[in-house]
Task: structure prediction
Amino acid sequence: MTPAEIREEILDILSDIAPDEDLSTLNDDVAFREQLELDSMDFLDIVMELRKRHRIQIPEEEYTQLASMASTVAYLAPRMKDIEARP
Amino acid sequence: MIASHRSSLPDDRRIVITGIGLTAPNGDTWTEFRESLLQGRSGVSEYEIRYVGKTLAGVCRFDALRYQTRKDARRGTRAGSVGVYAANEAVRHAGLDWDNCDKARVGVYLGVTEHGNVETEKEIYELKGYDYDTSYWSHHHNPRTVANNPAGEVALNMGITGPHYTIGAACAAGNAGLIQGAQMLLLDECDVALAGGVSESIHTFGIFASFRSQGALAEHQDPTRASRPFDLQRNGIVVAEGGCVFVLERLADARRRGATALGELVGHAINTDATDFVQPNPDRQAQCMQLALRRAGLTAEEIDIVSSHATGTMSGDAQECTALRQVFGASEKTCINNTKSFIGHSMGAAGALELAGNIASFTDGVCHATINVDELDPACDLRGLVLNEPREIARPRYILNNSFGMLGINSVVIVARV
Result:
């Protein structure tokens, strides 16, 4: 997956987790929590969805890498480069 | 305990219903539900659930997003959504000034037949796709399956900081929730009790499969004819979902704010068969009704409507009729009806929903029927049964509501016109 495809995938996950939020105005460089109503259970949802969809295992000490869209994509890019984007 | 005769009680020891919120398979408001009961409109339809396949159920169609965000609905449970909807509707119906209501003095007491099966089954089903690797098990499982979940979701949604919990009482739970709410008002634990029962049971395949294994799951070509208590051809239970929450207050508080009292809880009883896991004990059921009558200071002859529990099983219906004959056999005016014939068995919600449907008779003077009785089972031939068509009755004053459950739990409440 390219970084752009990973970003789309994260947006898709967020649309399930935070269905009441408008994601079209998301600023990639600002922390999710500063823009969206997300709590720790929601972040666990992101981790779980990545695990379920792509078998990506994110160690607990690295959860902080998922703070913003930019940091999430940067963290996932090397880990998901060999995964094919869904059609 | 509710004392012996209400006329001698001060208003702050009398518990009244000032609001009703509900969702049933044939109505999402008290008015709509009542219309369906008077018009003979069933809420049972074809239904399919994993592993069991095609079956029948009473399915609710309320708008869950009227009071919940999509996120909260996703994060919570179906029972939670049912409770949130019914509780908000009840508060609105009661005309409470909710914004200025002291939420620390509101209690939530919801009866449940079971809770957690839906989520556990779903998680195990999904886990199978991951070769039972439990690292794929949802972190939402515990908050969804803790036994207080439905009441807790109501409290969370409505900002209620008083006590909340569920009352696990099998299919007697709707009455048990109501009784708990009244008791907590009398103990001064709260000033407003949101009390009743909820059911999400149609979303667990286990309940269908277990009833089927027991030979107690109803079948019929026409779904609307499948739930037929007292009929000779009855063949079991139609499982339903639903919820009903009453706003309970002390009469003194209700009068102070100019609220309309829809009914007064004048008697109640809960007892236990202690004889079998499943089979009811008609003697104990009769004792439960008699205890409620005694506490209300009433005789059987004074009860206008008995809302029966009968679920449509061959033995259970006949057993309740034996109990009803013991208590009401000599009562000429008492009418007996059954709400499950319309909506199926809404489990934890049943007692509360069935009472709510009947309370409307205080206003319209009609006893709704028990429908789908083509050939009355002689074992269920009771004096006073209102068969298939509603009956006008002269100014009903007292309703007795039966609700019984597995492990031999019996519950009875008596509600009076105010």
